[in-house]
# Entry
Amino acid sequence: MLCLGIESSCDETALALVRDGTLVDAILASQVDVHALFGGVVPELAAREHYRFMGFLYDQLMSRNDFTAAELDVVAVARGPGLLGSLLVGVAFAKALALASEARFVGVNHLHAHLLTVGLQEAIPWPCLGLLVSGGHTEIYLMESPMRFIRLGRGLDDAVGEAFDKIAKLLGLPYPGGVHLDALARRGRGDPKLFPRPYLDNNNLDFSFSGLKTAVATQIARDGHLLVNTASGDASQILCDLCASVNLTVTESLCTKVARALDRFPDIHSLVLAGGVAANSLLRTRVGQLLEERSGRLLLPPPHLCTDNGAMIAYAGELLARHGFDHDLNMEAIPKGIRMPDDLRHDERKSAADFSRQERMDPLDTRPL
Ligand code: KG4
Ligand code: ZN
# Structure
């Protein structure tokens, strides 16, 4: 089964081809330079950039792999959550392509796709837990099957990546700052007592990071002159130490909730870590250690599949299609903050491992699908 995945929920226009669970090729146009001028994603500009690049990227991807639209079995698209204007560009393109090529059409939950993407490199042991940490979301899930994700906890204010980016901005680092803060943190020594651990004194699995941003702002106001880069343009040691303290506070807060979730599900021993912040060096190490201590297993996508990409949409879309699920062309794009409808169609006859376009198109073929 050949599936084209289209991702345009935020500021990356990304397309990829997955065939039978294996990545064939991927292409991506980042808008980071455009939004860096404004210090954050500008929704109107993001939608225009998606519109500018979508057709070009599609042509490049298909032609360099010698595929035509007629060979696509499935067209999958991120249908949300995300920026509505950006989503609409991808969804409209995907619908038109599915209609023209007679491929099946699948709208994919962007958050579930992040968590499923590790399936491209190793089998996911269902059920497992999933921690999604990105620029827009901090969520923890019980992942029962590719179709059933139960959210156990969520971010109540700033998402963890958003907190990293806002703190990085306060420190004068380039946008998006998470990766720069992480790089400086590796050169510093974190003080575990410098910042309060946010929102742990409770018994739930929700997250809150806006207080940490305020605590860092207060610290900068107190010690701001010490954070200025040295004459060489390099970061001062105190800046590296502060970044290390932020990294440590965020990581340990996330680990506390992960440990709590593992305690609640003693029969579950595996956890998927996904989303852009899953590229964070300390978080990867510490969550790995946490699972090792409990003889569990951490499933971790490679860093380039942690941030937004087309492969995760293609992989998730093909998986859903393979299980017999798809959408009709009425499917809507769902912006952040709106509940995702449960509107996948299911057709048992389409849920077969070896179902391919060839079999589907042959009207005389009566083999069971
Ligand atoms: O998943 P993603 O690409 O986009 C969203 O769906 O939000 O995540 C982007 C987020 C940004 O906030 C970025 O700063 C953060 O992931 N990020 C990191 C690192 N690499 C990316 N945060 C901390 N450490 C990193 N190494
Ligand atoms: Zn994302």
